[in-house]
From TrEMBL:
The chain crosses the membrane at residues 588-610. It is a single-pass membrane protein. Residues 143-163 are annotated as: Disordered. PANTHER family: CADHERIN-87A, PROTOCADHERIN GAMMA-A3. This is PCDGA protein. GO terms for biological process: homophilic cell adhesion via plasma membrane adhesion molecules. One of its GO terms (cellular component) is plasma membrane. It comes from Eubucco bourcierii. It is found in: Membrane. Keywords: Calcium, Cell adhesion, Glycoprotein, Membrane, Repeat, Signal, Transmembrane, Transmembrane helix. The lineage of its organism: Eukaryota, Metazoa, Chordata, Craniata, Vertebrata.
């Protein structure tokens, strides 16, 4: 059947309309196109280079539903992912399929709407291929009887357009306009029936659509001529409406319809049936033909279908009938949790990323309606992130400040979505974000300064000390290397005396130190990390050279005698004089030595005399009165035969090697009631008199 429609469909595809409005793309494509058929040039409409499609992260978002479209990775074309049947997907005349496309490089989401246009791929059909009617022979001409209605799932001009009736001149057909664009065929009796003439009449009802070429469906109408039936059933009321929650239990009675018939017996017995009903409604509801009870036989789902409309028919035993309209409205119940999905996410972020950096794009939806479908998203407290409302039901997770990897190296951010139901339903998802290191920390030495003591005559290569520095960064940025600072020791570069191991910070002596030459070495050690650019710090190191007894005493004068034949160095007391020396350079020398010797001997004798005199004075008995000369007796107090000073005195004592020059001086201004500075009239001598 595709042979005649392929040129028309291909033309429709090439003329597919598109537009970009507020982040939306709109296309149209006929139904029943083969898999991989062109729908629209997404790359062109979004202004993307086709070569950049793989790098831009352009893809169709998967929401857990059937994907009817896919994106060609090389061309950027939107194509069909499978054959699409408009009649299976949509019950309304306009059929729109939606999908979402994300450009991860721009963190932007576009909504794509594709209208599925109808083709005439369905013929009108009757629910029953044969319909039986019973009409009394006394029925007056002009009486009308409802005929079965045909159904054509196509839309527009391809849908049902007209009915035709053939087969008997007793009947004709009239079409009544129903609600909307419905056409209701009716059988019109144009000639009185005579059961004795013909007990049965067979008619053919044809339904035709408006396609090119037109499609047609047929049904057989068999009319049985009966005896008279005066009254038809009547519904009261003619329209029924009821509202039920979507969680109503299966088997519950939703409503009961009632039709009455004034006839008696078989002609007054009414039976109920569905008259005009969609396939989905027939799977959900059940009608008791005797009582008129309408029950639910399958769970209702507000999110799938929120309203059901159909017709009922009441028929008596004489084939007279009446119809009624039924509308069942399904009300929402908070039975769906919010659906929180991560549309796009960064797995790692640099710690120097600026405030407001988008790290994730989330989509949230709740299939409920009203307050039950209103969703609020939140984060845990204390995290440096916040949610910003994006277009529609999208949220952006952005940073609120600059991150610090040294404080927190990884974040597990929990995003919660709760609806407005009572009680509310909620769901959550966890975003894991690793913080990448930036070289923002210089190495830090473990000590403010270092010092070490190194004995002289050390071996070359001896370990002096080890410096250690740590870097709070990670990876290459935390790798520390050591080196010496610029410097000289006695004019020689420092690097010829010591060296530092670049990896461990061990400081080695490159040569043997001599305390008599170098007693202390001061230097700087630099620690540098592996970042780019590198950061560094330095520390001072002081090496103190410790003296060792490595030098023997040396006689400077007189000079040593030559080494004897036995290998022993001797010493000669002979002083040599030059031949030009005049007679007598030695006489004055002898006099000088004798004078010095005499002075030294006199000093020793004087020192000995002083020692003896001090010893004698220490062994002399105290004065008879036991008081100091010149000090009144009233200035003493006696306790147990011991006299002591009653008052305080401030005095100065001057002692010399010569006892005649020693004195004791008492000050009058230092305290009250002190001794007078002058000696008493009867005692002119000082406290310590001359001997």
């Amino acid at each position: 059947r595709w042979g005649r429609r392929e040129p028309v469909l291909l033309c429709c595809v090439l003329l597919s309309a598109w537009e970009v409005v507020w982040g939306q793309l709109r296309y149209s494509v006929p139904e029943e196109m083969p898999k991989g058929s062109f729908v629209g040039d997404v790359a062109k409409d979004l202004g993307l280079q086709k070569t950049a499609i793989p790098d831009s992260g352009v893809r169709i978002l998967d929401r857990g539903r059937t994907q009817y479209f896919s994106l060609h990775g090389k061309t950027g074309h939107l194509v069909t992912a499978e054959r699409i049947d408009r009649e299976q997907l949509c019950e309304s005349e306009q059929c729109m399929l939606r999908c979402e496309l994300i450009v991860e490089g721009k963190m932007q989401v576009y909504e794509i709407e594709v209208e599925i246009t109808d083709i005439n791929d369905n013929a009108p059909s009757f629910e029953e291929q044969e319909t039986r009617l019973r009409i009394s022979e006394i029925t007056a001409s002009g009486s009308r009887f409802p005929l079965p209605e045909a159904h054509d799932p196509d839309a527009g001009p391809n849908s049902l357009q007209s009915y035709e009736l053939s087969g008997d001149d007793h009947f004709s057909m009239a079409v009544q306009a129903g609600p909307g664009a419905d056409r209701r065929p009716e059988l019109v009796l144009v000639k009185e029936l005579d059961r004795e003439e013909a007990a049965f009449h067979e008619l053919v009802l044809r339904a035709r659509d408006g396609g090119e070429p037109a499609r047609m469906g047929t049904a057989t109408i068999r009319v049985s001529v009966l005896d008279a039936n005066d009254n038809a059933p009547v519904f009261s009321p003619a329209e029924y409406a009821v509202r039920v929650p979507e969680d109503v239990p299966v088997g519950s009675t939703l409503l009961t319809v009632t039709a009455t018939d004034a006839d008696e017996g078989l002609n007054g017995r009414v039976k109920y049936s569905f008259h005009k009903m969609s396939r989905r409604a027939s799977e959900i509801f059940h009608l008791d033909s005797e009582t008129g009870d309408i029950t639910v036989k399958k769970h209702l789902d507000f999110e799938e279908i929120s309203s059901h409309e159909f017709q009922l028919r009441a028929r008596d035993g004489g084939e007279l009938s009446d119809t009624a309209e039924v509308k069942i409205t399904v009300t929402d119940v908070n039975d769906n949790r919010p659906e929180l999905t991560i549309t796009s996410q960064l797995s790692e972020i640099s710690e120097d990323a600026p405030q407001g950096t988008v790290v994730a794009l989330l989509h949230v939806q709740d299939r409920d309606s009203g307050a039950n479908g209103q969703v609020r998203c939140s984060l845990d407290a204390g995290v440096p992130f916040q949610l910003q409302t994006s277009r529609g039901s999208y949220y952006s997770l952005v940073t609120t400040r600059q991150l610090d990897r040294e404080m927190v190296s990884q974040y597990n951010v929990t995003v919660r979505a709760a609806d407005g139901g009572s009680p509310p339903l909620w769901s959550s998802t966890v975003l894991t974000l690793r913080v990448l290191d930036v070289n923002d920390n210089a190495p830090v030495f473990s000590e403010a300064s270092y010092s070490a003591r190194l004995p002289e005559n050390n071996a070359a290569g001896a370990l002096v000390l080890t410096v250690r520095a740590t870097d709070a960064d990670s990876g290459q940025n935390a790798r520390v290397r050591y080196r010496l600072g610029e410097g000289r020791v006695r004019g020689v570069p420092l690097s010829s005396y010591v060296s530092v191991q670049a990896e461990t910070g061990a400081l080695y002596a490159l040569r043997s130190f001599d305390y008599e030459e170098v007693r202390e070495v001061g230097l700087w050690v630099l620690a540098e990390d592996g970042g780019s650019p590198a950061l560094s710090s330095n520390v001072s190191v002081r090496i103190v050279i410790v003296d060792e007894n490595d030098n023997a005493p040396q006689v400077l004068y007189p000079p040593a005698a030559p080494v004897s034949g036995a290998g022993v160095r001797g010493w000669s007391g002979v002083e040599l004089a030059p031949r030009s020396a005049e007679p007598g350079l030695t006489r004055w020398l002898v006099l000088a030595v004798a004078a010095v010797s005499c002075l030294f001997l006199a000093f020793l004798l004087l020192l000995l005399a002083l020692r003896v005199r001090r010893w004698r004075r220490s062994h002399l008995p105290p004065p008879a009165d036991g008081v100091l000369r010149g000090v009144p007796a009233t200035h003493f107090v006696g306790i147990d035969g011991v006299r002591a000073f009653l008052r305080s005195y401030s005095h100065e004592v001057s002692l010399t090697a010569d006892s005649r020059k020693s004195q004791l001086h008492l000050s009058t201004g230092s305290c009250c009631n002190t001794l007078p500075a002058r000696p008493l009239p009867d005692e002119p001598a000082p406290l310590l008199g001359e001997d």
